[in-house]
Amino acid sequence: MPHPIMFSDDDPYLGRIREIALALPHTTEVIAHGRPTFRCPKMFGNYGGSVKGSRERHDQSVLFVADPAEREALLADPRFYLPAYLGPAGWLGMLLDERTDWTEVTELLDASYRQIAPARSVAELDAR
């Protein structure tokens, strides 16, 4: 049985996330478990998630692989949460709203991409 779709294509936050993620070299969008994921070829970003150990959903959030050196500091910020399933693998979620700093989101997705993407893709990004 397929997962239900848990996003709307006309969500403006999803539009911004797509714009940021798909600008990175060799990135594709794949719907997995009912949510948009961004890959190169492994997943480095996910739109929407839920809090680990609860049923609390955050459909307007972005999940990313956190830089291990920044993980604890980010979790101390109330905008961030430990996502279900992906949290133990180093992922964090960031809530999105009208106050979102899109430069910060871009930096977080860039850092996540750099941890996941092949060296040739990172080199292409650096050459831009």
Automatic annotation (TrEMBL):
GO function terms (MF aspect): DNA binding
The keyword DNA-binding belongs to this UniProt entry's keyword annotation: yes
InterPro entries: YjbR-like_sf, YjbR/MT2646/Rv2570-like
Keyword list, A-Z: DNA-binding
Protein name in UniProt: MmcQ/YjbR family DNA-binding protein
Organism from which the protein derives: Gordonia aquimaris
Lineage of origin: Bacteria, Bacillati, Actinomycetota, Actinomycetes, Mycobacteriales
